Amino acid sequence: MLNSLVRLPVPTEPACTEDIFSSALGTLFTDDLLNQHGDPGSSIIYKSKAFGDLELQLVDPRGEDARRLFAQYLWNSGVLMAELIGGGTADGRAMEARGGSWSVTGETAMELGAGTGLAGIVAALAGAEEVVLSDYPALEILANIRTNVNRNIPQASSTKVRVEGHEWGILTDPFSASHKHAFTRVIAADCLWMPWQHLSLAESICHFLSDTKDARAWVIAAFHTGRATLAPFFDTVVEVGLAVEDIWERDVDGHERAWARERDGGREDATGRKRWMVIAVLRHAKSPSIEPTPQTTAP
Predict the structure, then answer these.
(1) What is the mean pLDDT of residues 13-26?
(2) How many angstroms separate the CA atoms of 97 and 87, rounded?
């Protein structure tokens, strides 16, 4: 289970009963899965089989605008993204995406909506040639990502990693203008819960993703805000010039099934739905592709 890959640091002082109970909720009540981990201003540890324990500081946002972005948590989609990029394991099984692992070796990678920066940090550790971790340009969010980069990236590799503020859809600033089609891998985890931002996010993916034939964007999002909230994004990407090369669903235990825009006639059980995520591989529409997976509506 993905949740087993995240733990709290060993406390320097004895933990109170409430803290112990709170940190164990996902284990005690497995039906009501925790989608997010940690508390604002605290630290958590991602247990990577390939790279050891990675300790991540969680930002304590200032102001309501920054707090509403929910960058102050590590989300299950980010954990799964890190597992797929890093070639990790869950329950002893190889953590590979359908069609093989998501290799970043020698690639240039950009993470959008980085939050803690976990996926981008793992990309750097996994051999990416260059990594940019980006998030909304709030000073405390970017400073927190830099803290996590400095904590987890060896000094010898630090020059290939940078942190940039980027507001989705704003593509005329110096960084965006100078990095059009600059990245062969663009990654976004748990960024689809704001439908009013779908177009801006799709425009940023299309802008930064290289137009070479092998360039791909990887998107993972959980259904905790509802399937209907996420589904329109995959129409929007087509409108901006991208194509959905492959799309499917995976739960926290590694079970997979076909992607469906709707299940149970829109009455999908919310508790069960929280266990599942949609995984999509995007490319520029003009790039060669494998046969795309059809989108379905499940009974």
Answers:
(1) 49
(2) 9
